[in-house]
Amino acid sequence: MWTLFQIELFKIFRRPRTYIAFAAITALIGMVQLGLKVDGQEYASFVMADFNSSFALEGNLLNGYFVCFIVLQLLLVHVPLLIALIAADMISGEANTGTLRLLMSKPVSRVEFILAKYLASVVYTIMLLVWVALQALFLSMLIFGTDDMFIMKSSYAVLIKSGDVFWRYAGAFCFAALAMTTVAALGFLLSLFAENSIGPIVATMSVIIVSTLLSTMNIPLFNLVKPYLFTTHMITWKEFFDLRVNELNEAIPGSLAYPEKIKTSALILLIHIVVFVGAAAVIFKRKDIVS
Amino acid sequence: MQSLIQVSSLTKKYGSFTAVNELSFSVQKGDVYGFLGQNGAGKSTTIRMLMTLIEPTAGDIRIFDLPLSTHRKEILRQTGAVIEKPEVYPYLSAYDNLRLFARLSGVKLSRAQYMQQLEQVGLASRAHDKVKTFSQGMKQRLGIGIALVHNPQLIVLDEPTNGLDPQGIADIRNLLLWLSREQKKTILISSHLLSEIEQVATRVLIIDKGKKLVEGSAEELFDPSKTIVELQTNDTAAARERLIASNWAAHLRESTGNNIKLQMNRNDIPALNRDLVQWQIDVLSLQQQHSLEDYFLQVTAGKKHVDTFSN
């Protein structure tokens, strides 16, 4: 299993396609950072327009923490599509090139092979998120500096003290990693059903888009399925940036407003991963390799 | 002699289509076992079942005297295979591909040993070039190198000379003969080309539509006294007349259009040519038939031949 895992990682990181996602992320984040650096104050004034009439806000609002939050909001919709590029190609790509029959004629267990491949795609996903973190958080901190973080929710605003932010990003990135590995698991499962990469990649993207639409549309019929869709829970990372308030309506530093929501979402995503990967292992164990 | 592969009543069905039908055969230790059949005869399906890529619908496979269904890993550890086109990772070098598949086979060799393996298949000078720059023949040789890298007892090759030029085919043939004679490997080789198998095989199985047609020793199958010779002359009618009136009459098998077919010892071909020249008939073409299609016609139409072909 360990050898298989090492080999899969070796293959992923020796393949040029792998670096497309890293390049795309670099370009996307760089564009957002450049835009905010040039016209950021104007953007911040526009966003804060409603608050400026009621509150006097001082300090560096457009700091690295705030920029990272904006980047994540924009980017975490697109990262699943980049992950699908690799995960949905894991088996179908091997079938397409014909290497699957050579691999499976070697003395390796099919279940171990599936698990090693999935774990390798998890490592790839995590590395992609680390890359996002390095650019979106650390580079933004360098470019824009640090200060208290001011973000707006649908009906209220949250002010998080500068010293209380970093661990929240750590939590948010860990949660995002869980969400993205769920996407990887879906792409991985779908990659079993085709002998070319395009079909599973498009299918994974389609499932994500349709599920996201169902998760965001407020229609009673769809509300029944919403709690069970993984896309509903993928955005729960934002809960790390909401604080509990005391009886005086003052924010409690180091607190989370809805920790149960984070736990429930994490559990539902984990269940999705187990179901997707488990199904992939069962199907692949019995699959005839005719490519 | 010890049976290395024992296949009994092997069947594979896809819905109502039967790709392999109650196929039974055995490969002895040290055999170069030629597995012949036209395209679509069921050769690749059978080989895929031997390599556990496809689950049989029915039947039993034993390799190294172990049931394949329960001892897959032990068996594959001692088996090397090239199944159809040997596709490898184009973005990796020949060396990296070889090392990767060696590790999957459970062996870790030194750099010198990997290079020696590449030398054996004539790729040492291109060891560090990416496979995407290789010709089909080079990929084929790399595939064979991968099949041999863990020094397996049993080598399974499915159409190993596909896409190779004549020199490449000769190189593979020499490699197979060396593996069989010097290294004492057991080889199962499939092909749709009778000429290819004829030169290396010690035993042969011919299948058609998933069913066994003939199994036996190559010596008997390729008996020179049963060669089919196709004759074309400038005057087919005169040639036919002369042949019927001569000692060649017993060898005549078929006469269609401008072709006359005889079944005879191939050593007698010069004598036939001499007679035709003596009868003042110009010989346009006189050739042995080697295509499997023709051989099938011979086997299926000439039941007598099949009956006399012993296992």
Provide an overview of this structure.
The complex is a heterodimer of chains A (291) and B (311). Chain A has 291 residues and is an all-alpha fold. Chain A has one domain (2-286). Chain A is 67% helix and 3% strand. Chain A has 13 helices and two strands. Chain A has helices at residues 2-14, 18-47, 49-52, 64-75, 79-87, 92-97, 99-104, 110-144, 166-190, 198-216, 220-223, 230-234, 259-286; strands at 149-152, 157-160. Chain A has a two-stranded antiparallel sheet with strand order 1-2. In chain A, a hairpin with a 4-residue loop joins strand 1 (149-152) and strand 2. In chain A, helix 9 (166-190) packs parallel to helix 13. The mean pLDDT of chain A is 87. By secondary structure, chain B is α/β, with parallel strands linked by helices. Chain B is built from twelve helices and 14 strands. In chain B, the strands form three sheets. In chain B, strands 6-7-8-3-9-10 form a six-stranded mixed sheet, with helices on both faces. A four-stranded antiparallel sheet of chain B has the order 2-1-4-5, with helices on one face. A four-stranded antiparallel sheet of chain B has the order 12-13-11-14, with helices on one face. In chain B, a hairpin with a 2-residue loop joins strand 12 and strand 13. The chains are: A mainly alpha (291), B alpha/beta (311). The A-B interface holds A 3-4, 7, 10-11, 14-16, 97-99, 101-109, 286, 288-290 and B 48, 51-55, 72-77, 79, 81, 83-92, 96, 100-101, 103-106, 143, 146.
